[in-house]
Specification:
alpha/beta, six-stranded mixed sheet, four-stranded antiparallel sheet, 15 strands
């Protein structure tokens, strides 16, 4: 196992994709190296979402243009108007003429040139699940692209449209979760225990209007969207997005999609539910997707710290699964084995300097506070522990 890990790490150093952004919005300088799993941490409004949306635009410029044109969005070939339409209203100020530079895989990217002409390649390579995913459901049904304001971010509108199309196609199936052919049995059991509490997700109608409901199998037992818990409202759009990425049958990935972005996976979720979502993300990696996350959850960093040390010690897959209380089945062991061979990169976005820092080592004894404090996510617990220790020492003294 250790020899395979070292060989894999050497290959990752050679083939890792790199993105450099300079003077773009609040970002002064971002040097991002991507692994099989890439995680962004840092305070709000430090540029994490901007980088992820920029990555989407670089990879899928033709697909983005096609969708915008389909829904009547015209930026007249002008970069400021495009930035407002793509990133959201008021975001045209992101670009600083003669100062902003973007480099992808050592190649300079000219956004003005990209949006100024129609791209021939319309394939989509990156699937984006935004932090505002709860907006995708209105009264319990996915909203179409055109239902949003013209100044709403493209990532939110496109994700919502994807869900609408998927649910429409499956509307004859009734129950969406749990389905015997959807997700591994272990995932279904964990989701039932930690998110749905024995409820099912299904489609019903009220006066011919379709809607998603949670049901308990009893007469008049369906719960409409407005009485779901906050965690269920946040998770259902994420679950539907994962459904789209995990097609049934022998095909492991969706169409030409190679990359997946999930912003703030932890929103509204209890710690146990976050663990289940992490397992689902690991499933994406096992299927062959490159996954990028943004997070404000110390639990996610705890998980990656544990993963790093389990990789270094050559631990068995069962040990990793034990952290998540996952069943020890052949399919789950395969997932854990693949994860132990995968590369992980973690980047911290600093508010004061506007510079990103690689903190992938997650070394609590590191000289830099960004790495020692895991991008600020462990700072509070550290101060709390120190305060209690001092108080106890003073009392005994």
């Amino acid at each position: 196992m250790r020899g395979e890990l070292k060989r894999r790490d050497r290959l990752c150093l050679i083939y890792m994709d790199k993105l450099h952004i300079q003077n773009f919005g609040q970002i002064k300088s971002a040097d991002i190296t991507f692994g099989d799993l890439t995680v962004f941490v840092g305070p709000q409004a430090t540029g994490k979402s901007i980088v992820l949306q920029t990555l989407k635009l670089i990879m899928d410029a033709g697909a983005v243009q096609e969708v915008m044109g389909k829904y009547g969005i015209d930026w007249h070939g002008k970069l400021p108007e495009f930035l407002d339409a793509y990133f959201g209203e008021g975001m045209s100020s992101l670009w600083r003429n003669n100062e902003t530079t973007i480099t992808w895989k050592n190649k300079a990217i000219d956004l003005g040139s990209i949006i100024g002409r129609r791209q021939r390649n319309k394939e989509e390579n990156l699937f984006f699940i935004p932090a505002q995913r709860v907006l995708a459901l209105r009264d319990g049904w996915p909203r179409p692209f055109a239902d949003y304001r013209s100044g709403d971010p493209y990532a939110v509108r496109e994700f919502s449209e994807k869900l609408r199309g998927m649910v429409e196609r499956q509307s004859q199936e009734g129950v969406l979760f749990p389905q015997p052919r959807r997700l591994k049995e272990g995932f279904r059991d964990l989701l039932q225990q930690n998110l749905f509490s024995s409820f099912s997700l299904s489609i019903d109608k009220v006066q011919s209007q379709k809607r998603l409901v949670l049901g308990n199998g009893k007469q008049n037992g369906n719960l409409p969207f407005m009485v779901w818990s906050a965690g269920q409202r946040e998770f259902v759009p994420l679950l539907l997005g994962l459904y789209w990425l995990m097609p049934r049958g022998k095909t492991s990935t969706r169409d030409k999609i190679k990359w997946v972005v999930i912003e703030e996976l932890e929103m509204g979720l209890h710690s146990r539910a976050i663990s289940v979502v992490l397992l689902l993300i690991f499933e994406l990696i096992e299927r062959g997707y490159r996954v990028c996350l943004s997070t404000h959850s110390p639990q996610v960093l705890d998980a990656l710290w544990a993963l790093r040390h389990l990789k270094e010690t050559g631990a068995d897959p069962e040990v990793l699964l034990g952290i998540y209380k996952a069943p020890i089945t052949p399919s789950m062991k395969k997932l854990a084995t693949q994860l132990l061979l995968s590369s992980v990169k973690i980047h911290y976005f600093d508010r004061e300097s506007g510079v990103t820092r690689d903190i992938s080592e997650l070394d609590p004894s590191a000289d830099t506070p960004e790495e020692a404090g895991w991008g600020g996510l462990s700072e509070f617990s550290g101060r709390a522990n120190e305060a209690v220790a001092n108080a106890v020492a003073n009392t005994r003294g």
